[in-house]
Structures are given as structure tokens and as C-alpha cells.
Specification:
Distance between the termini: 95 Å
Mean pLDDT: 78
Number of domains: 2
Number of strands: 10
Number of helices: 7
Strand content: 25-35%
Oligomer: single chain
Structural class: alpha+beta
Shape: elongated
Radius of gyration: 31 Å
Amino acid sequence: MVTSGGNGDTEGRSEFTPVSHLEDIRNLLGLLLAGFAGAVNLIGLRNAEMATILRNQGILVGLAAILLMAALSFAIASVFVSNRRRIHFLVAGSAISATLAAATFAMYAVKIPKSPTWTRGWILGAGAFFAAVTIAGILAWAIRRPANPRISLQLTLLIASAVLISSATSTFIRIEAKNQAVASLPQLEAATQSKGGEGTVSLKISAAKLRDTEWIYFTVLGVPREMEYKSQHPCSEEEGKCEFVADGDINPDPVGGVEKNLQIPFSPLTYQHLEITAHMCESGEKGGNCTFGPKLSSIDIRIAHPGTDVTGATVEG
């Protein structure tokens, strides 16, 4: 005669033993963070650029971090909620609308210079619409108190998490675009060589991530030897001291980069000081006229008289 206990297959287990959710949390967080990191890698950020963004746009980076933490919090909460737990459609809809409103207002907070005004108007309007839907849904639920909830709470939390992680990603991308527009400057490197009465300026001009309505305009000005000057930067600070030597436009490549090496002749017998300036030209439309913005770099070089080996250079950002 064979007998078996009714709980033989559950020996060593208790109905009160908690179920571990660590594996689910780890997988879900890994998926969300991998998506966020993939978006950051997609825009090609390097460590030095991350430090620049944190230094220049710290408050907006904090906003993106709050959205990211909220997304991760909703994702973790969804693991601990039973998939049988239901909420009413009005509550679920209000929650999703609230996250969409937060996402659009976060996008509105990051103003990208030179972007069309109507885009910010649309973003603000969308945020106001979602906020109104949220308030209307909450009021309708509070007044009617409808029964028969049918929407999964777990699904609602996952949708809210997806919206917020997408918002954090798009906000960070917009912060990077704003930082590029504000902090990107043309870079200059220059060296002079002279032999007898002939000289050459070896000039390297570079820039990165320019828009299709931006380009580099450079000028080379010289102070004649018979002209006296007191300023360290006579061409920009003392009117009428400098003469034109050379200038030119440099357009960016298809990815917005500029890297140009130039050899510009000049006469060391004629000039005692050179000022080289690279301006960031801005235009309202592609192919339009140049408008000098605040972004420029300059190099001042004091030219020794032929027969000596002393050449001084002062570099400005």
C-alpha cells in the first residue's frame, strides 16, 4: 500500500515565502538604461563633451536626470504590482496624460537657439493639452466615482515608465543640441615663418557640429611697421591701426565639421603685428548673408623684424 502526503511536492516551501523580484528588476532596469545609453552614444558624445554639458547646462541636465529616475521608479513599482490589479480608465488615462504633459514641458524648457518659434509654440500647446486632459480625467473620476475598473495598473506603470524614459532621452538630446549652439567655437592654430622679405602664416581652422546655416569667416589683418600702437590687440581695440591682408569663407562638410589648413603669404618687412580672427557666420536661411554672432576666436602674433628669430604670439578663445 502506497500513501503520499498531500504536500509532498511542496516540501521545504511555505506559502508565506516571498517571491524574489530582483531578477525582474535587474532585467527591466538593464533594458531601460541600455536604451538611454544607446541614445547618448547615437549622438556621439565623448567624455570631454559630457563634462562641458554638465558645466554649462547643469540645471537642464538635472531635469533630464529627474525624468530618468522617475521612469526607473515606475518600472520598479510595476514589478511589485500584481497583474490582476485593475484601475479605472479615467485614472489610467490621467496618469498617462500627466507623464505626457511632464515630457512636453521638459522639452519646452530646453530652448535651442535659432530654432523656429512655431516649434516651441506647438510643444507648449501639446503640454497644455495633456495637462488639461489630466485635470479633466481626475475631476471626472472624483465626481462620478465609477466602478468596474478594467485597466491593468501594471500596464499603466510600464507605459508611464516608457514615456518618461523617452522624455529623458529626448531632453538630453535637446540639451546637447543647445550646448552645441551656445558653446561651440571655431578653433585656430597659427605659426609664422619668414625668410628675408617674405613670410608665410600657416593657419589651421577647425570647428565641429555646425548647422547648415553656419560657416566660418576668417580675416588676417596687419599693423604696418611705421604705425605705433599701445594695445596688445591693436586691430580690435584701436581703430585705423590695421590693414587688410587676407580673408575667406570656409563651409562645413556634410556632418557639420570644418578643418582647413591654409598658407597665407605676407611681408614681414611691412607688418609688425598680425591679428587672425575666425568668426562663426550665422544666417537665417541656407545660403543667406553672414551675420557675425558672439562666437569667435582670434590670435595676435607680433612679427619680429627680418634678421631676428623672435616671434611672439598671444592666443584668445
